[in-house]
Amino acid sequence: MFVASDRARRAEAASALGSLERGIEVLLCLAAGMRPMNLTQVHRSTGFSKTTTHRLLGTLQRRGLVTRTGGDYTVGGRVADLVAPRGWAIQGRRLPGSRRAVLPHLLQLYEATRQTVNLAVPDGFELAYVERLYGHNRVKSPSDGLDRAPLYCTAAGKVLLAHDAGLRTAFLSAPALRRVTGRTATGRTVTGPAALERELAAVRGEGVGYAREEFAEGVCCAAAPVFGPDGGVCMAVAVAAPAGAMGTAALPRLGAAVRRTARQITGALSL
Q1: For the domain 88-269, what is the CATH superfamily, name and number?
Q2: Helix %, strand %, coil % for the chain, to 5?
Q3: Is the pTM of this model over 0.70?
Q4: What is the residue extent of each domain of the chain?
Q5: Can you give the residue ranges of the HTH iclR-type domain (predicted)?
Q6: 2-80 maps to CATH 2.30.40.10
Q7: Which residue of 42, 239, 251, 267 lies most exposed, with the fewest beta carbons within 10 A?
């Protein structure tokens, strides 16, 4: 009886270790994907059965290690804190807990639009994408693989320029940048400091910035500002979509969704 009991304990321990390893594999899969994944995608990526995958995702979600939005999963909660415990760096400062506060809102925006969702912060005279959510049909961009883009011809960059007077003054007064803005990225890129200043004034008035195939042919974007606890702009949330899908009415609707999300994130950061 003692031997049988010992075997049962060893079998139970082996089973628990296997479940732990499989759970870690699911977390690594979601963390590496950098986008929401549904049950089928996680099942195919890990090679686990659908039943096992569903059970593991449910357990991880109940323990706060995975966040579910609709039918999609992503790492969240405690894991998000481990990935970026101090928050994002923004112009040399960090916003503690910012990723945990922001990510659920980005997921909701992705769920609502099913288009590429970007979160950008200023980095000198460029912007850096610190979070990107997308599906299999993501729109291709020159920023892929770099996670950086110019300020003057991207929706997020325009938003950051429009709401940061110091950054805007430095950008527009730099002689080298006058030459940069004089070279079009595409035939639709806004050129010249005066024209850019007029557009930035419109961005401040509307609360949304747009880029209509200015950074890349075939890509349209809408972005809105996120304000930090000190009241200054600290991030820009943006959605990029294929230009063909953005008719006359579609892009403003995307802008309204982005503006709503940016306001929610601003509120979350102030708590």
Answers
A1: GAF domain (3.30.450.40)
A2: 50, 20, 30
A3: no
A4: 2-80, 88-269
A5: 17-77
A6: no
A7: 267
